[in-house]
Design a protein that fits this description.
Structural class: alpha/beta
Helix content: 40-55%
Number of strands: 12
Strand content: 15-25%
Order of helices and strands: HHEEEHEHEHHEHEEHEHEEHEHHHH
Bound molecules: nicotinamide-adenine-dinucleotide
Shape: globular
Distance between the termini: 23 Å
């Protein structure tokens, strides 16, 4: 599948191959489980506000359709490629299977810089992307959600474009939309809140006391900011945070609520008083108890894996750790890893709740959403920890094995048509 060849896709395949060997999946079945079912690449011409026209590249990859519709985020970032989107779709499949959701994985992306585009340009781009995707998406086919660079507003435009095409309102076409349009209470907070919950559970396994612990969070967007707030609520002292422009460090602890306010007003972390500036590279190496990468893939590599100084590595981002770094971390038994497919699963779990609520036009309170979220995370966490302990394998291997095995079994039960 040369069409996907790219570092993040190679990384996802490498992880799959190791697990397939461990599970002794017959060679004849492997490609069928590993490679994406469908991929779309589209050219998106739009008018810019200066009157010129520009064409953007957009992608959507649906990894497997065995267990239900596909589900996954839409990313706006300049480095988006078909291969990266395919890797992210693959991880979504294992994540949904690990948490028992009736979905296959999907992911979409547009290569653009949302921070440098106007609201009108982003709206035109989103609507054009949705228009191009209409033959391939639907509430029972493929359901999008926010990811890096997209948000509730982007989901609202997708829902509106799709609904205008259908001739009636279709809230279940996307999740992570505003609550006023059929979004779920607790969806925006779900991923970061799930990270906090799982770190707290992991602390029991590491005899770390949350009230005495320190944390560093890379990436202060939807996931990173809520993860930091959630950890602070558990009594953790957050000493470092960052965004794409750089980080903030205060060994005495950052006032997360003040940072929240500062960022909302200034759209950046830079210049926040009561903290020293620090680079993203230095931030990852700060001594802390809990390290939360919540930005991009491939941040923890062979170059820095031996130098990170944490007790719990909570992978809020997708694919933040390369397989080479994993080999180094697996030798460092003092570090407890909550692998990405488990750690950030809160987002898709509450997306599932949102989809169910939209299909039934019957909405739940936030306590009910959060309670159900924690129950599913708890079950997935315990299954992963128990398997890792029983089989003496790393947490990532356990989580991926549980997910991949479920997809393998479902494919076996359904058989191969014709
Ligand atoms: P976001 O766009 O809201 O925030 C991203 C943050 O990362 C921003 O603060 C940005 O400035 C920062 N960033 C970007 N490039 C960076 C770099 N090179 N170094 C440091 N910081 C950088 O995105 P998000 O929705 O919070 O997603 C973050 C990660 O979490 C992604 O890996 C995404 O796939 C994953 N994720 C998101 C969700 C969700 O519900 N949004 C669910 C599961 C996983």
């Amino acid at each position: 599948m040369e069409l996907y060849d790219q570092p993040t896709f190679r990384m996802a395949c490498q992880q799959f191959d190791v697990v397939a060997d461990y599970l002794q999946i017959p060679l004849a079945e492997r490609d069928r489980i590993k490679y994406p079912k469908r991929s779309m690449a589209v050219a998106l011409p739009i008018h810019l506000d200066d009157g010129s026209t520009r064409v953007f590249a957009g992608y959507r990859v649906q990894h497997h359709l065995t267990l239900g519709p596909t589900k996954g985020g839409l990313r706006y970032h300049p480095d988006v490629t078909l291969g990266e989107v395919a890797a992210l779709a693959m991880w979504m499949s294992w994540k949904c299977a690990l948490t028992g959701l009736p979905y296959g994985g999907a992911k979409g992306g547009v290569a653009c810089e949302p921070g440098k585009m106007t609201r009108k340009e982003l709206e035109r781009l989103t609507r054009r992307y949705t228009q191009e995707m209409i033959p391939f998406i639907g509430p029972q086919v493929d359901v999008m959600a926010p990811d890096l660079g997209t948000n509730e507003q982007v989901m609202a435009w997708i829902m509106d474009t799709y609904s205008v095409h259908a001739g009636y309102t279709v809230p279940s076409i996307v999740t992570g939309k505003p609550v006023g349009l059929g979004g779920s209470l607790g969806r925006r907070e779900a991923t970061g809140r799930g990270v906090g919950y799982l770190v707290n559970r992991a602390s029991d396994n590491t005899s770390l006391v949350m009230g005495n612990a320190t944390a560093v969070v890379q990436g202060y967007g939807n996931v990173g900011s809520i993860a930091a707030l959630s950890l602070a609520r558990y009594g953790v002292k957050v000493i470092g945070v960052s965004d794409v422009q750089g980080g903030l460090y205060n060994p005495k602890g950052l006032d997360i609520w003040a940072i929240e306010k500062y960022q909302a007003e200034n759209k950046t972390l830079q210049g926040f008083p009561e903290a020293e500036p620090i680079s993203n590279e230095e931030l990852l190496l700060l001594p802390c108890d809990i390290l939360v990468p919540a930005a991009l893939e491939r941040q923890i590599t062979a170059a820095n894996a031996g130098k990170i100084q944490c007790r719990i590595l909570a992978e809020a981002a997708n694919g933040p750790t390369t397989p080479e770094a994993d080999e180094i971390l697996n030798q460092r038994e003092e570090i407890f890893i909550i692998p990405d497919v488990l750690c950030n699963a809160g987002g898709v779990i509450v997306s599932y709740f949102e989809w169910v609520q939209d299909l039934q036009s019957f909405f739940w309170g936030e306590t009910e959403v959060t309670d159900k979220l924690f129950r599913i995370l708890e079950a997935a966490f315990m299954q992963t920890v128990n398997m890792a302990k029983k089989q003496k394998i790393p947490m990532r291997m356990a989580a991926l094995s549980l997910g991949i095995k479920r997809v393998q079994e479902a494919k076996k039960m359904r058989g191969l048509f014709p």
